[in-house]
Amino acid sequence: MGSAQDVNLLHSSKMEDGCAPFGSRTTALSVHNEEETAMLPITVAVGGNKPSGRYILVAGRADEKDGLRQAITTGGLKPRVTYRVAGWISLGAGAERATVRVNLGVDEDDNGNETLVECGAVCAEARGWTEIMGAFRLRTEPRSAAVYVHGALAGVDVKVMDLRVFQTDRKARFGQLRDKTDKARKRDVVLKLGAATGAASVRVVQMDSAFPFGTCINTTVIQNPAFVDFFTNHMDWAVFENELKWYHTEAQQGQLNYRDADALLDFCDRLGKRARGHCVFWSADGAVQKWVKNLDRDQLRSAVQSRIQSLVSRYAGRFPHYDVDNEMLHGRFFRDRLGDEDVPAFMFKEVARLDPDAALFVNDYNVECANDPNATPDKYAEQVAWLQSCGAVVRGIGLQGHVSNPVGEVVCGALDRLAATGIPVWFTELDVCEPDVGLRAQDLEVVLREAYAHPAVEGVVFWGIMQGKMWRKDAWLVDADGTVNEAGQTLLNLQKEWKTDARGNVDGDGNFKFRGFHGRYVVEVTTATGKQMLKTFTVEKGDNTPLLVDLVDA
Fold first, then answer.
1. Is residue 16 among the annotated active site residues?
2. What is the pTM of this model?
């Protein structure tokens, strides 16, 4: 029996048979062949399908709304199911690069109008093909549905190849991740106990994982006993929601206020948790306080220098990470107001000068979602390369992870592209938004399994975990009364799954062998005479050779 990914829900298996132009009367479709299909990017060959080479050319577009429409089989879409929209987009005449959007139209009203559901966008180019990696989920079963490809400026011809809509298969994907997870997060271990131990029994228990989880905190939530309990027992890192941002520490020019940041950092220190420094600057215009906007160019440059000196000197050595200039893919305030494209690199270099041990991050949103042409993985990698070319040392790539109905292959495709930079990746603000807590749990599992299986990812920090204490209201893991909900239990189950508990007997050579997740362990050895020995050791990431742990004289 074929998988759900084998079933294309579009009305016709041949694009040219099911497609129709929509919009202006001048919009026309024609079928062509692409010879260079071997050059097409492929994140996942859906159902074993490779690019056919046949594409539809959408020409004569007089408006951005003009494009291609293809109907979906009646009754093909079900509620509460995540679907992928796949295919490839290129441009013909009219532009070298343009944004092309993919929407789902559902349930025509009496006037023929449909509700549009956003399900993907690409930054298409004339000299190549860009893969569509869209996704959507519906709350109710539609009476009718169709996929629309449109959005480029008027006069730009759009090419569409192998448009497909199909149901995702989470379980099949999780199965594909098993070996990848094993390779990325586990290692063979040989405990050398010595022949003198005889026929001893051994139990190895993992105490801590080398893969950290964390959450956003603020001055209110740390007063909640249920939050503190969950944070203490299940989190390793924290990030401050607003308390370190410039608009919080200097709301009025010259009036510095680090009391809240100090209190949160002291809270983390008491519990033995590390904290990310978020953030030194924020590029989004809406996140810049009024007094900063009122400065002239020279005053702003001086204020930027003072901000770096004040913040980083105060906390040097206390924040292992800094997000230096937040959301540069979406904001340009400092570059535009200072008239200097290289100002972010200056920020990186100055922070590094004052706190050389801190890992300095870029940090942005939508990169893992394939729905934002401003934030593609390619553009993010190019931004990192540009910073490096300006002399900045970038030691971390932050994926904020504000996601809805995520698709594993799409998340993995983004991680693969960013991994090519050679720089570690963190999910820095993860929240999976879904009102139905059962679906939220499923979505969270998708993201966490992809992150944990990918060798480039070094940690996951949530943007809050508790009901009523989060920016996105439908993403909490712990109810207001302290009850861990289904999504939170998914996290706890995965944390348990990703720890090793091995037991057995010492072999004839005095060794005990097992394969375990990276992290800190305790081993209990009980000899035939009942003598017990407790030892600790750490399994670190290494090459394919087993880790030899000599406990004879430990």
1. no
2. 0.94
